[in-house]
Amino acid sequence: MSDFENDYRHAKPGQSGPGIVDYLDLETKDQTYLDATELVLNMGPQHPSTHGVLRVILKLDGEKVLGTECVIGYLHRGVEKIAENRTYAMFNPYVDRMDYVAAVSNGLGYCEAVEKLLNAEAPPRAQYIRVILTELCRIASHQVWLGTHALDIGALTPLFYCFRDREEILKIFEKYCGARLTTHAFRIGGCIYEAYDGFEQDCLKFCEHFLPKLNEYEELLTTNRIWVRRTKGVGILKPEDCIALGVTGPVLRASGVKWDLRKAQPYEAYKNFEFEIPTGVNGDTYDRYLVRIEEMRQSVRIIRQAVEGLPTGPIMAKIPKVLKPPVGEIYHSIEAPKGELGYFIVSDGSTQPYRVRVRPPSFVNLQALDKMVRGLLVADVVAVIGTLDIVLGEVDR
Amino acid sequence: MLDAITNYLHSNATPGEAGSMLWATIYILIIVIGISLAVIAMNWLERKILAHMQIRLGPMRVGPHGLLQPFADALKLLIKEDIIPENADKLVFWSAPVVVTMTAFTTFLVVPFGREHAVTDMNIGILFMLGVSSLGVLGIIMAGWSSNSHYPLMGSLRSSAQMVSYEIAMGLAIVCAVLMTSLQTGTGTLSMIGIVEAQAQQQTWFIFKMFPLGFLAFAIFAIAMVAETNRAPFDLPEAESELVAGFHTEYSGFRWSLFFLAEYAAMLAVSSIAVTLWLGGWMRPFPNWLNGGAWGLAFSFFPALTLFVLAGLCLLGAVRMPKIPQMKIQTAGLTMFGLLLGFIGLVLLAPGVRERVQDIYWFVVKVAFFMYLYIWYRGTFPRYRFDQLMKVGWKVLLPTGLGVLIATALWGLMPQISSSVARGLGVLP
Amino acid sequence: MSLSPLIRKILLVDLVKGLKVTFKYQPPSEAVTEQYPLERPVIYERYRGQPRLKVDPESGHSMCIVCNLCALACPEQLIVVKGERNPVTKRKEPVSWSYDLSRCMFCGLCAEACSTGALELSQDYEMALYSREGMVLDQAALERGPEPVQYVK
Amino acid sequence: MPDESKDPKPISPESSAPASAAEAGTPTASTPKSAEPVKTSAAPATADSASNPAAPTSEGKPAAPAAAAKPTAPPAKPTPKPEGPKPEPWDSDLVRKLKAQYGSGIKEASTYVGQKYLVVDSSIVYEILLRMHDDELFDYCVDITAVHYPKREQQFDVVYVLYSFHNNERVRVKTQIQEGETLRSAFSIWPTANWLEREVFDMFGISFDEHPGLKRILLPDGWKGHPLRKDYPILQQDQEWVQINLGIESGQ
Fold first, then answer.
1. Domain that includes residue B32, residue range
2. Structural domain count of chain C
3. Predicted TM-score of the model (pTM)
4. Which of A41, A226, A382 comes nearest B241 by C-beta?
5. Could you say which of 1.10.645.10, 3.20.20.140, 3.40.50.1100, 1.20.1200.10 is the CATH number of the domain covering A79-396?
6. A349 and D113 in contact by Cβ < 8 A?
7. Check: complex ipTM more than 0.90
8. Does residue B162 or residue C3 have the better pLDDT?
């Protein structure tokens, strides 16, 4: 297996493309691909462990994976085309439907991007409420990841413990904005719902109720020899490959790159909270597991600081009822649970955005699947898809 | 004709030994029905216990607390259409489940539920059980091969490799136990009833014999038996996440339920081997330490006691059932079930019955404990990858098995070795 | 008790810890299942469920003044309101309402845009129906709220 | 398995544009028209900063009270809306170096609301990207996307968003290309460009040469047309695909 990066690094401008064909093109190859030894296995799109409608074509030599090709687009709903026919406020609910597991952070990204276009700033109280809800949504997203990831590797029970604790978060969302999953909690310019009276107590009760439960997840998995053997050294991604493939989020941090948009380019009220960024050492599935578990603890820390420091005051900035942002374009990105979620919005001065481009973390992280999975076994492909934590609603948009 | 029937009742030998074919068939029928009942109970227990471990309630709708769920499943499987894939190998496809179920049931021929409660007492009992249970692999390969599609093929190849490699570890552990039977009498025995009697003579269960070794052999067997039946951490062949459903993907309806039946029967068989060899088969705990008449009497009440406890649980459940019209039938059903259990408990109190049922009860309780272990493993452990599974089998269990075997042999021969060494050194004449 | 890692490995300490956790959660009191038709979930006050058109208690007329702001605000354009001026009260009365529930995503923008607070999302979540046409609610259905349809063979 | 609803629910023109919103007093918020929003102002400012952006802020907005949320500001007469932020020229040693070397190639280098971007001629974009990657340590290509301006003579804007971990800086490099013009693929600089460029090809029809496998990524292979173009006929395209493959009249 020729090494990946020295191929493309030395591709001289004249030379046609890198040495190895990175993209596995089955049909148009001249020599027939399917000699006797290879078995082409079609995993998905209705496969129990592909986290939605992802189809992975595996080229197997016995159990070993020679190469993969991801076929996506089964859940493509044309969100960017919808955006061009809706006003800025109307497009807000559609954003929740992309990464439906972490809907709140999608909404936060979109509202902040439009606020940057409008040159408006959410008032401090709204910023704090937004940070609390986004961190709760990060914990909920990591819990769904842990549950399904453990289920793919065979441990049936963590899923139910994760979902029981996630229920508390969904109750807080329901009390706050009326919906559990596609919350549509924020509006452009701040929050529309005032924090309901038991809000602080519920968040604090969740925080100290959740930490011992998190230790139980660790007791079930972290030292379990079968779990360690199934995840250590599987799907290794070196830091320079991560950066080259544009991988972001916990996958990047597990490879040792200490980079988190909440610290690198702080947005909202993240600058006045202190929390660490957990990083891994050798970038395998076990490190990604540890990084995400530690991230949940850091989120609890942030929520505690935010709830204590919740300022009083208005929750909605002064913006016109009919939004007509000035002509121009901006790119704004936030640290979603899966990685860097970016919005590139071009406005032509009318009430409807001229172009909204969403940079989804899962779409770019999924590209790294082929590099991580070469030479592993079929059972590991399932573990690697789980550790990438992709959500197909976001991959296909 | 009549005395042919009655004279067996006076002899205290197994029907096979006593040569009365009639009673042997009756025993076989009892065992087959017993196993099916056990599988039905196991189906319900597995779903409920696994559910409660996962903080959910499990089946609650079909009958009170889901008690009729196994019957509903069985009915569904019988009614469901039995599809044979179109270019599957018809004969092999049809016969695979038959082979698997046949092997699973024949192993119960030699399982000793009591001193004389076994279909027959072969002198090569344990060897027979191992041989027949390894035939099950053949059925699985036939099933995988004849379904003519990727996933079953990979599933069946995997499970055959797994079973073969864990049978060796099982064999070694069993040889250690058989070695221990020869300590007192000088000649070991392969017959299951003989092994239990050897434990009775040596007045200790083999699990506690020569402390670390007996337990180690038992531990090796416990791990190997879980792998043998493709369960819990080793359930790779039907790992849902990769191979969709392993070797029985293409089966449906009654044929699939045969596989299901065979899997549970194999679990029961392998646990009964473990119970017979290491946990003293039908012997009640502390047979000689607490052997006074009073203790004997006290222990003999245990069967009735457990049934009364179960009946109490059912009645408690019925009382706590919500008082709404839809639930009326379910409460009635549960109370009836509770009363039935109570009645059986009463029957077991009768002195005549109490002695006879003693052995069977203790054997069944020990096997039930193993069944609970299976479910507990399934609820907790992730799944081994295939190569790791083979590594554990070959690189961990096999060497320790050999080590334990050699150590048991040395320990057993210690008196002779020391005397011959002493004679060699001239200490003894 | 810190045993050396080797002994912990041999005595399967890590596996036993996992077993302990699952054993602890066995009693039925830990179960969180909610048996739906008998035990109903707790619905909170701000829940966004089936839209409801409020009726002015004294006069019995609908509070909707056909200002059409909700139809404008809805991203899916699924509200169509027609009304005409009632000569007596000089107020506009809604004549025909059509709210296509099958395309509604319960985002709540219509309730926010409604100037008189007539249209709001209620806490009903049982909206199952047997016909797609039944999903298009008219004024009466909006005012009455959902009646779950009993399945009849 | 044909993909389910490929296109968003098109806004059927007859259901929108309510009859009379006049007497409600609020100006007719421009109702979402059919797929092709009529652009009132000339090409948006970013294309050519010469023509000042015709800020279409209609003054006639009375101080209508804020929406149902608590009226935050007292209904004083809002001061005339401040003119939107202008892209100011951005001057740094990077820009000077590039201008020194490529001169007219760099059409514009300015910041808008604090975000730096370069507008570069399409012929030299590959070298600039390679330089940005090797010399300026922009080692993370965040995103590659395109914007379609049918009225302009160079129809497409291809946007590269770059970020450098080293000096925590984000820059956007934009080029303008005609219909049918191709660009050199950035795959040999950043492998992440593989799928990003495939999506731009899928949605806009801009092809990149030397791309390892330029094929549609989100839409089925036989799909005709590129959806994110402004002149993309939603209704006709949707029915055609459904009629051919499913044989039913229309997907709606």
1. 17-283+350-412
2. 1
3. 0.85
4. A382
5. 1.10.645.10
6. no
7. no
8. B162
